[in-house]
Amino acid sequence: MSDNGSMIHARGLVKRFGDLVAVDGIDLDVRRGEAFGFLGPNGAGKSSTMRMIGCVSPVSGGTLRILGRDPDADGPQIRARLGVVPQQDTLDLELTVRENVLIYGRYFGLTRRELRPKIDELLDFVQLTDRAGDKVEPLSGGMKRRLTIARSLVNDPDLLLLDEPTTGLDPQARHVVWDRLFRLKQRGVTLVLTTHYMDEAEQLCDRLVVMDHGRIVAEGSPRQLIERYSTREVVEIRFEGDRPETLALDGVGERVEELPDRVLVYTHDGDATAAALAERNLPPHATLVRRSTLEDVFLHLTGRTLVD
Amino acid sequence: MENVFQPLRAYEHWLAQYKRVWRGTIGTSLINPLLYLAALGVGLGTIVDESSNAPAGVPYLDFIAPGLLAAAAMQTAATESSWPVMGAIKWTRTYYAMTATPLTERDVLIGHQLFVITRVLTASTAYLLIVALFGAVHSWLGLLAIPVAVLIGTAFSMPMAAYASSVEQDRSFPPIFRFLIVPMFLFSGTFFPVTQMPLVFELLAYLTPIWHGVELCRGAMLGTLELLPALGHLAYLLAWTVGGFLLARRSYKRRLFR
After folding, report:
1. What's the complex ipTM?
2. pLDDT recorded at residue A213
3. Best mutation site among A69, A95, A99, A103 for testing chain B: the one with the most B CBs within 10 Å?
4. Which of B13, B92, B100 sits opposite A84 (nearest CB)?
5. Averaged over B65-86, what is the pLDDT?
6. Does residue A239 sit in the same domain as residue A280?
7. Same domain, A263 and A162
């Protein structure tokens, strides 16, 4: 049914808004059942890419095939097979939780008879059964997000697109959303998500691309990316007040990254490096040894942090 | 090929929403015109009727009853296609929920317009029944005033939807109402024949869709409708509707699929 069995196939994909190039020639292949992520800071081109994949934004250049079809020609037919969780909720705040899923299901042409059991099942899945008859307006941000996810699943999508699914949620609500998405992944639903949270990408994605300035700067599994672009461990040095001028970091670790508020020393053995730093009269409480994360990968690739 | 019934799916959204707020809309759509009718038709009308040159040779109430029907259709339709259209783009983002599904910009637009038509249809039917009880409907032709009111509605709501989907700020709306809708309400044959005005204003009035709508409603309700002028008025209202629809569809596409 699709180009080499891929759910999303892009070659040299470009999106322009006037003079602004939001997406600058990217190549992608997302396979069935995969959880694929776009990691990058705000303005990297993630959302523009997602909107093109969602068939609501015309391609400015290159090729794009979604489920083997051309979005320009078959947008509505492709959208019928997609589930979309947009960055900003588009819920009907005046309607009840149940009505929201019902009305959304009707957009897909599902009958009320088909929808009745479907809605029960979906609200149970996102743990909103006991709020089914309540208006949406007073619900918490996390509940609204879960309702949006329930709604996006009403057509049993082949491909679920999530644009920043947990941005703006408190940590507990984020974990509930992650748990639900993880279950979808286990059921074999193909997930494509954008995020600027490295922990989200690490938790959910089998494979991801790092985007910056509209381009893909790296691709791989979270583990591969860390192995390729970072060291196993990092020693973080924080200073009280200004950085002491006497501190010499030459010859310490593999690589040193200086940030406004801290210094990162990349190393294969964090404890040994921390000990070496202590010998240079750095107080022990100023150093923290941790494992490398995607944040470090991003910093190395772009010279910037993900969330400023 | 897209399903021709798809706009109905978008229409269902607006109906579900309306179930929660319909009481509040009766005031503007039905009670307002009836208040005008009482104050001007009954109050002012007793003075007008004592003079020797009552317009159209009928009681003043009967003269303005069709005008107010047409004007109410215009106002309901223009209002429903202004803030609610911008809201569905910027505030509730309802249109974006719709376009994430198989619905297209055409379905989103028609679905919303079907709801505007529903509002005009129900309000003008209720109004016509009430003024019929006052004896202001002289002929069975008066029933035609209902489809005419719907056409007046679309002649205003389609261009308004095109405008509302292309502007960024809701402060763009008050000038439209203040400088276009209100003057049309007052000076396009609703309360007095436009021939009473200086020639320039009379000619301007002929350009407004509402004058053609008022003429049609009045002709229908007083039973004086003549075929040829009626066809001309209908064609003019239809032209605004179709032109407005084409502009709105283009503007919706630009806004929702960019």
Report:
1. 0.93
2. 94
3. A103
4. B100
5. 97
6. yes
7. no
Count how many domains chain A has: 2
Query: pLDDT tens digits for A148-189?
Result: 999 999 999 999 999 999 988 999 999 999 999 999 999 989
Domain extent, residue A258, equals 231-291
* A202 and A182 within one domain: yes
Q: Say if the Cβ atoms of B102 and A107 lie within 8 Å.
A: yes
Tokens of B149: 């009111």
| Closest residue by Cα to residue A192 from A93, A301, A293, A53 | A53
Classify strands A6-17 and A287-291 as parallel, antiparallel or unpaired. Answer: unpaired
| A237 shares its domain with A215 | no
With 80 as the cut, is the pLDDT of residue B248 above it?
A: yes
**Extents of the domains making up chain B:** 6-256
If asked whether residues A105 and A190 sit together in one domain, one would say: yes
What angle, 0 to 180 degrees and rounded to 10, lies between the N-to-C axes of helices B105-133 and B227-256? 140
Please say if the pLDDT value at position A254 is more than 80: yes
pLDDT digits (tens, 9 = 90+) for B91-143: 999 999 999 999 999 999 999 999 999 999 999 999 999 999 989 999 999 99
Contact B98 A107 (CB under 8 A): yes
* A90 → chain B, closest CA residue: B93
Question: What pTM did the predictor assign?
Answer: 0.93
Picking from B1, B95, B101 by the largest number of A CB atoms within 10 A of its own CB, the best residue to mutate is B101
Interval A83-94 mean pLDDT: 95
- The pair phi, psi for residue B118, each rounded to 5°, is -60, -40
Q: Is residue A52 part of a domain?
A: yes
Chain A residues with CB-CB distance to B96 below 8 A: 56, 86, 90
Q: Looking at the complex, does the CB of residue B98 fall below 8 Å from at least one CB of chain A?
A: yes
3-state helix, strand, coil in chain A (%, to 5): 35, 30, 35
Q: Are residues A235 and A107 in the same domain?
A: no
Residue from the list B6, B20, B100 with its beta carbon closest to the beta carbon of A56: B100
What pLDDT does B28 receive? 80
Q: A257: domain CATH number?
A: 3.30.70
Average pLDDT over residues A216-226: 94
CB contact under 8 A, A90 and B96: yes
Q: How many CB atoms lie within 10 A of CB B135?
A: 11
**Does A297 reside within a domain?**
no
CA distance B120 to B108: 19
B235 touches chain A (CB under 8 A): no
